[in-house]
Amino acid sequence: MAGLLAGRLALVTGGGSGIGRAVCQALAKEGAAVAAADINRQQAEETIQLLNKDVQTKAYEVDVSSSASVNTLLGNVKQDFSVAPCIAVNAAGITRDKFLLKMDEKSFDDVINVNLKGTYLVNQAFGRAVAEAKLELASIVNISSIVGKTGNIGQANYAASKSGVIGLTKTAAMELAKFNIRVNCVLPGFIQTPMTETVPEKVMGVVVMLTPLMRMGKPEEIADACVFLASEKSSFITGVALEVTGGLNM
Ligand code: NAI
């Protein structure tokens, strides 16, 4: 199968919905084998049904906030595909929006545990697997958010988790370069997915007005950036926080 990523194996977390699902589709279209992992196994299975049939694909259940679950995932993927993945895209994420003065500890912890700790755990387990397999080319793409740069009312927990992902990405880029692993993150603006369906229409209207390209983004547009960062088209790029926002908060 020809394509930018032919012969490569990609692990995608949050692969059961929205951006993660679009990433799975774009990677498979470019010839990568895909392991789609999500806390919702049923949705991950549904993603697999949508993928290019010429490449090997498999759905997995994982809770990225648990090291045991992440380590089991990496072990199962290696076993099923007979090789360690050389691409990881970390798209698993949640929101629990509340104003800071009303933020309960659980809402804060849950968001940090999935968005930041989960990204750390997968970066670590993937990094170990690549180092052990002595792969020559590997790439991690972490999905942060533009609000990790700017903050956002009602999202102290989420913005903090996404700022954390930027710091984690840059540090991992420094530490993992010696194992031939590039590490970058994407900062999406407001993208049409189930995550943003609950944002009130009025708020979305304001966001669109503040976006120079005057619209929300599509999951496919984030997926295209992930394909670029996963591929050798970005071979000299590491530690970058790539904004894919239609110009919002540039
Ligand atoms: P989504 O809600 O459609 O998809 C998120 C997926 O993550 C779901 O399938 C969910 O089951 C999975 N997930 C949740 N907790 C998990 C866990 N503990 N372990 C494994 N999987 C888990 O959301 P969307 O919009 O596709 O978001 C994907 C990523 O992009 C997230 O990290 C989100 O924070 C980020 N993002 C989204 C933006 C948007 O406007 N939609 C903007 C900026 C960033």
Automatic annotation (TrEMBL):
It is an enzyme of class 1 (oxidoreductase). GO terms for biological process: estrogen metabolic process; fatty acid biosynthetic process. Residues 8-184 form the Ketoreductase domain. InterPro entries: KR_dom (IPR057326), NAD(P)-bd_dom_sf (IPR036291), Sc_DH/Rdtase_CS (IPR020904), SDR_fam (IPR002347). Its EC number is 1.1.1.239, 1.1.1.n12. Belongs to the short-chain dehydrogenases/reductases (SDR) family. This is (3R)-3-hydroxyacyl-CoA dehydrogenase.
